[in-house]
Structures are given as C-alpha cells and as structure tokens.
C-alpha cells in the first residue's frame, strides 16, 4: 500500500467515525459539523449554498416513482454532513472544507473515443438533459448505508449526448485536481485525480445516473457538486464526485482505490453480502440516522436490473 497515513476507510468500519457523531448533538458540535453551526452559518452549509447555484430553478425535479426504497430516506442533515471526499480530508467531517470548491464556472470535457471531442459548460449540459428524482440506496464499502433522493439524468442520455464510437468499451470519469482548493490533493502519496470507470453497458444500464442534486436541490459540494456518478448496485467508492472529464476508451482503467490497494478495491465493486472485504464482513450494513444494522442485499437490492450484465463473466472479481 502506498499510503503513509492509513485512510480511515481502509480501516474496519467499526474503527471509523462512529454514527454517534451524527446522532449526538454535543458530539456533533465537537466534531465540527454541528447542527447548530449549520444553522448559525448558513452560507457554509451545502443546503443553503444551493441558493447561489444558477441551476437552482431546475429543482425539485419530478420524481420517477419506478424506484422505491425498502427503508426511510436518510435525514438530509446526516447525508450531507457524513461524507467521504478524500480531496478534502480522510475523515467524514469534510462538509465545511468542501465549501471552498467553486462549482461555477464548471466545464466538462468529453474526449477519447467519441465522434467529436468537446468541452461543455455544466449549465449547457444540464439544459440538454432531462432531470428527474430517484430514491436510491447507497452502500459504502465501509458497511454504512444511506438512502437519498438524488436528482440527475440517466447516464444513458449522457451517452447519447457524448456519442462514443462503437469501439469504446469503457467510460472513465475524473474529478477536478486543484490542491489550492482541496488540501487532500497535497498528499502526494494518493494518485490524484480521483478516477473511476464503468463499462459502456453499465453506464447504459437504467440505474446509472449522473447526479446533479439531492433532496430537491442542487448537489451539495460535499456530496460531489456539480456532477457525480450514482450507480447504486456498486460500493460507494465507485461513485465519483465533482466530475470534470468523461473519457471513452477501449482500455479498462485502473481506478483510484484500485491503484492504492487493488486486492481490496477492484474495478467491479458490486455489492455482495457473501463476499467479505479482506478485513471485514459485508453481510450487514449500518443505516446512518437510525443506528440500525440490516442485512446487505446482493447488488444492494438491484439484482433484477443489473445481474444480467455479469452472468457470463468468468474469472472476474465482480464483488471486490
Ligand atoms: N469521489 C471523490 N472524488 N473522492 C472521494 O473521496 N469517495 C467515495 C465516493 N466518491 C470519494 C468520491 C466514497 S468512498 C463514497 S462512500 C462516496 O463518494 C460517498 O458519497 P457521499 O459522501 O455523498 O455519501
């Protein structure tokens, strides 16, 4: 492993920030992301900063009722103050630091194996897409889970917009890289920028979305504004935040965590309760906000929509 200081989520989940941080208000205050601080400094909360976003008028988008939850939606304050975003720190309380990220102007480059490479302004892209809201489960590899009303557009629509060549097999996504904004990117032992990939078939799957908002508002910075991947049958680390580039290629990329610890964080990273992480069980998950542990489901409960994509893949580590 290349890391000099061990990232929190390379530790067993039990050793990571306890949920009491989010349930106990006093504890919450001590750990910076305080409800009272949120209320007192509205400009710093991802919730309030949404108002300054030029895309704010697009929210709330109409909910697509085809996607239902088997659990309550996680309280907004919990899902927006307990985050993984290593660019801003290797702990969960990055929401405040993430406010430094400037999300306008923001451009997205579409390149590689496409009919025409181009760079588009994010608001131009948003206007070209059909936004909708979906209730999705989210399962982190650390064995915590949330349920979020994401807003975004189907990645299938984005593929139509990007027009990849027929030989393209993967879409690689990249996060911004700016250490003047993101202190974590000064830690040179991480292979910045954060990078992730899907196969074209995965990207075209009905579940794959580019998330642009949450809880009926533009995406909070700490959750990956202005664009993040939402692929709910995969562990959370696949769901790259604050994307600036989509590259189409015929070569499978090596993603950020795969470069760091490939035997623990692979390319596929599909949720499976029966395949333990080398250092902890994946059989159950802790629901943030209700302090309850529930069984984890194969493909995070989305087998019906995605299992067919993997049925003929022999010799692949599909669940790691
Ligand atoms: N994207 C970037 N660029 N940097 C990150 O550190 N962390 C990932 C993923 N996307 C991460 C990222 C992990 S491990 C998880 S679980 C989810 O973001 C967390 O998303 P959330 O904070 O919105 O719940």
Describe the structure.
The protein is α+β, with helices and mostly antiparallel strands. The chain has a single domain (13-310), classed as Oxidoreductase, molybdopterin-binding domain (Sulfite Oxidase, Chain A, domain 2). 17% of the residues lie in helices and 21% in strands. The protein is built from ten helices and twelve strands. The protein has helices spanning 20-23, 25-30, 35-40, 46-49, 76-79, 122-128, 155-162, 200-204, 256-261, 303-306, and strands at residues 107-112, 118-121, 132-139, 144-154, 170-175, 195-199, 209-214, 217-218, 228-230, 243-249, 284-287, 292-295. The strands form two sheets. Strands 3, 4, 7, 8, 9, 11 and 12 form a seven-stranded mixed sheet that branches. The longest helix has 8 residues, at 155-162. The radius of gyration is 18 Å and the shape is globular. Residues 12-50 have low confidence and may be disordered. The protein binds ligand MTE.
Helix and strand topology:
Blueprint: H1 20-23, H2 25-30, H3 35-40, H4 46-49, H5 76-79, E1 107-112, E2 118-121, H6 122-128, E3 132-139, E4 144-154, H7 155-162, E5 170-175, E6 195-199, H8 200-204, E7 209-214, E8 217-218, E9 228-230, E10 243-249, H9 256-261, E11 284-287, E12 292-295, H10 303-306
Parallel strand pairs: 1-10, 4-11
Antiparallel strand pairs: 1-2, 3-4, 4-7, 5-6, 5-10, 7-8, 7-9, 11-12
The structure holds ligand MTE.
